[in-house]
Amino acid sequence: MTRKINIFDTTLRDGEQSPGASMNTEEKLVIARQLLRLNVDVIEAGFPISSPGDFESVRRIAELAGEDATVAGLTRAIEKDIDVAADALKYAKRPRIHTGIGVSPSHMRDKLRITEDQCIERAVHAVSYAKKYVSDVQFYAEDAGRSDYDFLVKVIQAVVDAGATVVNIPDTTGYSLPEEFGQRIKYLMDNVRGIENVTVSVHCHNDLGMATALAMAGVKNGATQVECTINGLGERAGNTAMEEVVMAVRMHEAELDAHTDINTREFIKASRLVSSITGMNVQANKAIVGANAFAHSSGIHQDGVLKKRDTYEIIDPADVGAGASQIVLTARSGHAALKHRLEELGYEFEGEQLDQVYEAFLNLADKKKEVYDEDLESLVNERDREESALYTLESVQISCGFPLTPTATLTLANPEGEPITVCAYGTGPVDAVYKAVNQIIRVDNDLTEFSVQSVTRGIDALGEVTVRVKAGNGEVYTGRGADGDIIVSSTKAYLNALNRLLSEKR
Ligand code: KIV
Ligand code: ZN
């Protein structure tokens, strides 16, 4: 049997630190359920002292996970942080406190203003203090990637002696080169007494585009836990992407003497879920989960793949849950074909619900020749958004062009279901619609971001609009909308963001 590599997911903590990707507790629970379906070993559910929302998320995810995963809460090496994390984790069946401190010259000198001895003292105290609450204590040596080798050995030796069960070696700034980072892990394996009795974890950032390579170098040199996020979400350029590292381990299991227990067939679903909730689009050429990850366009490649798939494809798309996109759905497809395809994508609809989805599908298929998996996902997500909406779109009409003044006529149904119609004009058609929406939904907000992406290929593709609005209290809300008509997608996206803002206000 090869070495088991634990997968520590930090989408809900480090991933959430990605600008604009903040999630509320309900959204985090939806993602946590998907992480359990992926069978991750550890879910880092948040940083409990940072906000009441993070505390609540850690508490509820700990309850949800039960025996199925370890749930970790992050802390600084501060007693109060550890008290609060322990409180958030008190109902967890498998709680872990993740505490730590900066260990590089830059962090000790410029951020913490402490000496090396003080750093070790605080690290040891944090671990011993956390041990009073839970037996499973993980220590992170922040900015280990830029630390002195021998000082790092000293810190890790001290926390192992103090009872840490996991030692996390982060390349916090994504500075290292893979080979050097691997040597750093090997140096710890060779020089820390008793390290074979603890789990060595790697946590890498993608500032030089090497987060996955760094994590793999760690695994090659003795690490048995990788910290990662779905889609590589995370601070700045992000963290190691779970789907990349897990598939790399699977492809090279024998030479790495390593395996994970991840249910890789859940990857695509996880990727789309995280993207849809956070509003962070996945680039089409992203490894494993990008829209083009299994698309072949050159004649030579197509010829090879048709003769034998592995001439140009190292992964079977089915192994990561990528739908068999060659089965094309059209307006001639019936309920059964649609239901089957939706089930393959992980959605179950019966009876009346299926009829509603089928109707929406036919509307779309009439406008487009081919309906792809991404269109279906978008259609189902759109339906979910509409179901939970306070204000819904009844109609929108635009008149614009040269030399007209762009004018929107808009009808929304209010939460009581009554239609309200207004007219507004603006500098462009989207501006006119958004002014009309603001006439009906009078809530203080600033549109800070607007982006359009086509969901699939071709001129008739669905256009998906993502917006971010800043409420009067500074909170940022993301909204999404998809439709063949870009004005309709724009209206739906803005409404979605304002509906989220309003429901949180309520
Ligand atoms: O990047 C980092 O060092 C971290 C730690 C808090 C683990 O995210
Ligand atoms: Zn990090």
Task: Give a short overview.
With 506 residues, the chain is an alpha/beta fold. It has 17 helices and 16 strands. Helix 7 links the parallel strand 7 (166-171) and strand 8.
Identify the notable features of this structure and list them briefly.
single chain, binds 3-methyl-2-oxobutanoic acid, binds zinc ion, 506 residues, 3 domains
Helix and strand arrangement:
Layout: E1 3-4, E2 6-9, H1 25-38, E3 42-46, H2 52-65, E4 70-74, H3 79-88, E5 95-102, H4 105-112, H5 116-131, E6 137-142, H6 149-161, E7 166-171, H7 178-191, E8 199-204, H8 211-220, E9 225-228, H9 242-251, H10 253-256, E10 258-259, H11 267-278, H12 299-307, H13 335-344, H14 351-367, H15 373-387, E11 392-399, E12 407-413, E13 419-425, H16 429-440, E14 445-454, E15 463-471, E16 476-483, H17 486-505
Parallel strand pairs: 1-10, 2-3, 2-9, 3-4, 4-5, 5-6, 6-7, 7-8, 8-9
Antiparallel strand pairs: 11-12, 12-13, 14-15, 15-16
The structure holds 3-methyl-2-oxobutanoic acid and zinc ion.
3-methyl-2-oxobutanoic acid (KIV) is lined by residues 14, 74, 140, 142, 168, 170, 172, 203, 205.
Query: Tell me, what is the CATH class of the largest domain?
Result: Alpha Beta
The profile of the biggest β sheet is: 8 strands, parallel, barrel
Bound ions, cofactors and other small molecules, one mention each? 3-methyl-2-oxobutanoic acid, zinc ion
Span between termini: 54 Å
Shape, per Cα inertia axes = globular
Alpha carbon gyration radius: 25 Å
**Helix-strand category:** alpha/beta
Which stretches are poorly predicted, pLDDT < 50 over at least 5 residues? none
The CATH superfamily title of the largest domain: Aldolase class I
Number of strands: 16
Q: What's the architecture of the largest domain in CATH terms?
A: Alpha-Beta Barrel
Task: Enter the CATH topology name of the largest domain.
Answer: TIM Barrel
Q: Considering DSSP H and I runs of 4 or more, what fraction of the residues is helical? A: 40-55%
Number of helical regions? 17
- Compute the number of structural domains: 3
Question: What portion of residues belong to β-strands?
Answer: 15-25%
